[in-house]
Amino acid sequence: MNIRRLLSGITFGMIMGCVNAFEFTPANVSSYIALKKPGNMSVYYPLKMNKLTDQKFAYQLVGDSEMPVHVYQNITDSGKNRQVVVWITALEDVYFNFGQQLKSNFRHDDCLFYMPGFWYRRNLRSPKEAPSFHTYDSWLVRDDRLSTPMTAVYDEKHNKFISVTRVANFECDALTTHNQGEIILSGKTSIGYTGFENVNGMTALSFGFPYKEAPKTYIRKLTLAPYVQAFQLLKKGESIELKWEINESRADDFSDCVRKTWEYSYDLYRPTPVETPYTDKIMKDVLSNFFVESYVDNATVKYFSGVELRTDDCGKNDVAEVGFVGRTLLNAFNALEYGEEKERTELVDMANSIFDSYLQKGFSKNGFFNEVVHLKRNSIEKNHSIRRQSEGMYAVLYYLDYEKKNGRNHPEWEMHMRKMLDNFLLLQNKDGSFPRKFKDDLSIVDKSGGSTPSATLPLVMAYRYFRDRRYLEAAKRSVSYLDKELISKSDYFSSTLDANCEDKESSLYASTAAYYLALVTRGHEREYYAELSRKAAYFALSWYYTWDVPFAKGQMLGDVGLKTRGWGNVSVENNHIDVFVFDFVDVLRWLSKEFDEKRFAEFSEVITSSMRQLLPHEGHMCGIAKTGFYPEVVQHTNWDYGKNGKGYYNDIFAPGWVVASLWEMLSPGRAEGFINARYR
Fold it and tell me: Going along 413-455, which residue ranges are E strands?
C-alpha cells in the first residue's frame, strides 16, 4: 500500500508539475493580520507559520511582536482538494482583517484569471473604468461580487489551474457608513474577499476575511473608487473559524477550466430549489397585470410601457421599444396567447392592437423595425441594432405561427418579415457575423460581432416557418462564426447594448443559438451543435449564483428573504443580478438529456424556483409600486446603477424585458414546439 501511494504521489506530482502553492509550506504561503483601533490607522502584522506537534492545530501563525490575538491553522487533504481552516481568538477586544496569499509557480504573463460572474481571462473587453487588466494586473474583490466566491488561475502554458473557494454558512452582513478606505463594520459579516496578485512576475491567489478590495473598489457603473478594507470586532475571549478550499487540476483550455470549476463549485455548494408559493399559474396571473397597467393606446404605435419606469410609481412613459429592455412585441404575443387561453378579451384586444399598429407604423423606410420610439419627443432611434431587430422578428414569428395554427393568416406581416430577413442576409459578413449596430441604409455603425447569436434564433425559426434554406444556411454561418471567435476562444462579449465588456448574455445567446440549430439538424451536425451549446452553457452558468449572498438588517432584499442562488450577474460593467433567462432553462434541460448531465437539470430547477421570489403582489410588493411589475436592477453587492446600493433596486427600471423573460421561463418547450410543428 505504501509503495502504491508513493507511486501515485510521484505520478500526480509529475502530472501537476509540482505546483508549489498546493503544498502549503511556509515558502509558498504568506499570511497577515491587520488590527485596528477606532480613530487610528490599522497595524499590520506579517505572520509566520510555526509547525506544531501533538496539538489539535497543525500551525500557529505568529507575528514578529506580541499580538492581542492567537491565530491557528489546520490543513486537511482530500485528494485533489485541500481545506484550509483558520481560528482566530481575541485576547482583548480587537477589530481585525486577516488574509493569506498562496504563491503558485505560474508566470503571471502565462495566466488567464477567473472569478465567476465578474472576471474572465483578463477582462480586456471591459473599459479601463471597470475592473480589468487595462488598469491593474492584480485584483482583490469581495465575495458577494461573485456567483461563486472563488478565484481560479489558469496557466495556459502548462494547461493546469488552481482555485481557492470560500466555505461558510454566509448568514449575515453588516452596514457601514463608508465604502472606501479602512472601515469598521457595524456588526458581523460573512463576506470575505478573494482575488489574484502579481508577485514579482509570478501569480498568487489571495483570500481573507472580512472583505477588502484592492487596488480599487467598483462602486458604480464605470466608477472605480479607492481601495476598501473592512474590520470586524472580535471581543475578548471570542473565536472565529474561517475556511477555504484549494482545488488543483488540469484543463485543456480556459473553457475547460470554466467547465471544471463550475462543476466543482456546484458539487461543493449543492444549491437546492427555493421554496415559494408561486406556481406557474399564480406567476402568470400576477404578471399579466403588467400588461393591463402598462398598456398605451394613444400613440402612433400601441405598446406596453416597460422601459425607464420609476419603481416608486411604475407610471407609463413615452418610450416604445421592440426588443432588448422593452420587448413589447414578445409581451404582446404572450398577452395574446394567455388572453385567449384564459378568455380575457382585454388582453387579446391589447395584443392585436399592438401588432396591428406596428404593422402600419412600426417600420423604417428600408423595412427594419423602428426599434426605439420616443413618442412625446417625436423621435425614433436612428441606429438599428441586430439584437433588437432579431428579438422583434423572433416575437413576430411566434405570433405568425400561433395565428396560423389557429386558422388566421397575415400575409402583410409575412411580407415584412421576408424583407427584413433578406436585409439580414445582406448584413451578414463573410465570416458569418452580424454587426452590432447599423443604419437603415445598411452602413455599419458598430462592426463588433458580439451580438451575432441573437440573429441565429429568428433565422432558424424563419427557415422552419418559410421553408427557405437560405435562412438555415445563414444561421449555420453565424454559429460557425460563434465557434471560431467566441466559443473556441472562450471570449463572450458585448451582446448587451448598454455595455462594452464581458457579459452573461453573449454566452447565453451563443448556447441558445447552437441549441436551435441542433433542433433542426441530424447526425454529426446535430452532435456538433449540441457540443457547442454545452460548451457555451458552462460560461452562461458561470454567471448564475450557486450560493445565497447575505444581506444586513435594514437592506430590503435581505429583509424580504431573497435567496440569490439561481440569479445571474449581468456583466463586468453592470454588477447586479437579474432574471435574464428566456430559453435558457429549456436549453439546460435538453443538454441534461443529451449528455446525461444531471447538474444541468438540477440547476435549471434552482433557477426556475428562485426567480419567482420577488413577484410583487398585494402584501408582498417587494419595493415595487404595482402588482406584476417585476423588478430588474437587483443590487446584491456594494455597487449601484446610480441609486440606493446593496439590498435595493435602482430607482429606474425596465420591467418589460423582465416580464417577457419570466414568461418564457414559465412556457417550457416553446422553441421545440415551434420547430417541430406538424400543421404547417
Answer: 437-438, 444-446
The 10s digit of each residue's pLDDT in 301-348 is: 999 999 999 999 999 999 999 999 999 999 999 999 999 999 999 999
DSSP, residue by residue, 528-577: HHHHHHHHHHHHHHHTB-SS-----TT-HHHHTT---TT-EE-BSSS--E
567-614 confidence digits (pLDDT tens): 999 999 999 999 999 999 999 999 999 999 999 999 999 999 999 999
What grid cell was written down for 408?
388566421
DSSP string covering 602-668, please? HHHHHHHHHTTTT--BTTB-TT-SSTT-----EE-SS-BSSSS-TTEE-SEE-HHHHHHHHHHHTST
CB-CB neighbours of 624 under 10 Å: 23
Which CB contacts under 8 angstroms, 24+ apart, belong to 612-620? 612/274, 612/276, 612/278, 612/283, 613/274, 613/276, 613/561, 613/562, 613/563, 614/560, 614/562, 615/276, 615/278, 615/282, 615/283, 615/286, 615/287, 616/286, 617/286, 620/560
| Full set of structural domains in the chain with CATH | 2-269 (2.70.98), 280-675 (1.50.10.10)
Output the nine-digit C-alpha cell for 503: 457579459
575 phi, psi to nearest 5 deg: -90, 60
Tell me how far apart the alpha carbons of residues 623 and 616 are, in angstroms, rounded to a whole number: 8
pTM: 0.95
Residue type, 410: H
Q: Taking the alpha carbons of 567, 573, 575, 576 in that order, is the dihedral positive or negative?
A: negative
Q: Is 36 helix (H, G, I), strand (E, B) or coil?
A: strand
**pLDDT-above-70 percentage for the chain:** 96
Cα 384 to chain centroid, rounded: 26
Q: Which sign does the torsion angle of CA 629, 633, 635, 640 carry?
A: negative
